[in-house]
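Incident log, support desk, overnight shift.

02:14 A customer reports that sequence design results differ from what the structure should imply. Their input is reproduced verbatim below. On-call engineer (initials T.W.) acknowledged and began investigating.
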């Protein structure tokens, strides 16, 4: 299976839910939620893509980097790359029901494992979505990260205990689903979290906690002070608040404030290994990829593995072209500034 075949499969399976545009930038699907688009005018989704386009790379080729290492260690797990699959819930109502929800979770967990990295699985209006993800994480000995929407803390803690039982690597909470249309429309009680509630979560959950949906320095500082292990700088792929800046734009200030204290993931508009290099150069420890993984799911676990390996090999090539031997050597020096 290769990227060309995967794109063809996607065109056959997705209908209007995803038009498989040459560049997945949120233009054709603006406002399509349920669907693959960004909320409102779709500007926040487009800003993710354009913020990355505005970052330019400094090509350097007089050096001796021939075989760079893309290996990344996350909570004592050694991964082949700093690229994880972002959680995507609700294939049925968002993505033309092209694959049963449970099969998608299985493909993400197994496809990422085949490529030597980790998949995150989502949550949604039906409890089966979270449960299905946990089952597949259990089947592969805990190699995955479940994501929980932000209901009241006692529910999060109960769901996190289930994740502890299956031996998951960590749990994520997408606090930015606080007003997500899909959740509120189905009567689910979700909402934002206070600093005290974050402290309570940390005190009651043994697994590392990832707070997903941080776009502001002050929010990042509060997560860090509450003892949270990691954040995802994310605007939920532009699906929760129209007119936010792109994540690449807010990332450097967040890294400057808390980068030494916690693991920083970022997502939004990352489409190539070159984009991955840009996010790492802007200070992220690792990235999540959303829509491209859902598109690759047209080829099941094999398709997702193929995409992840493709992104990894592009990152490797980009590291040669900028003279970076390993992830630690990627920094601001690879960014072109006049
Ligand atoms: C259809 C769809 C469903 C999503 N479901 C979830 C979810 O259940 N939980 C979550 O934390 N994020 C969810 N996200 C957001 C992604 O995890 C991720 O933040 C975003 O897609 C990254 O942007 P990208 O798609 O441009 O790579 C969803 C995104 C899409 C497009």
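02:41 Re-run completed on a clean worker. Output:
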């Amino acid at each position: 299976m290769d990227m060309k075949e995967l794109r063809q499969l996607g065109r056959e399976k997705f209908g209007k839910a995803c038009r498989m545009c040459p560049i997945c930038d949120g233009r054709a699907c603006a406002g399509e939620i349920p669907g693959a688009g960004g909320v409102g005018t779709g500007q926040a989704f487009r800003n993710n893509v354009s913020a990355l386009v505005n970052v330019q790379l400094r090509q350097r080729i007089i050096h001796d980097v021939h075989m760079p290492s893309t290996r990344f260690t996350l909570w004592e797990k050694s991964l082949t790359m700093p690229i994880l699959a972002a959680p995507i819930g609700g294939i049925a109502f968002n993505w033309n029901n092209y694959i049963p929800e449970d099969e998608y979770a299985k493909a993400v967990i197994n496809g990422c494992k085949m490529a030597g990295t980790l998949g995150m699985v989502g949550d949604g209006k039906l409890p089966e979505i979270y449960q299905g993800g946990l089952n597949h994480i259990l089947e592969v000995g805990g190699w995955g990260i479940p994501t929980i929407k932000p209901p009241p803390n006692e529910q999060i803690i109960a769901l996190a205990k289930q994740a502890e039982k299956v031996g998951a690597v960590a749990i994520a909470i997408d606090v930015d689903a606080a007003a997500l249309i899909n959740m509120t429309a189905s009567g689910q009680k979700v909402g934002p979290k206070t600093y005290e509630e974050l402290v309570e979560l940390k005190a009651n959950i043994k697994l590392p906690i990832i707070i997903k949906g941080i776009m502001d320095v002050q929010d990042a500082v509060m997560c860090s002070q509450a003892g949270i292990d990691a954040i995802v700088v994310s605007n939920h792929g532009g699906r929760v608040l129209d007119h936010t800046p792109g994540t690449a734009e807010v990332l450097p200030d967040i890294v400057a404030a808390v980068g030494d204290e916690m693991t920083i993931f970022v997502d939004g508009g990352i489409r190539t290994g070159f984009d991955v290099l840009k996010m790492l150069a802007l200070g992220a420890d690792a990235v999540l990829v959303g829509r491209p993984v859902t598109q690759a799911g047209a080829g099941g676990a094999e398709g997702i593995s193929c995409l992840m390996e493709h992104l990894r090999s592009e990152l490797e090539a980009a590291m040669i072209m900028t003279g970076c031997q390993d992830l630690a050597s990627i920094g601001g020096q690879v960014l072109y500034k006049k």
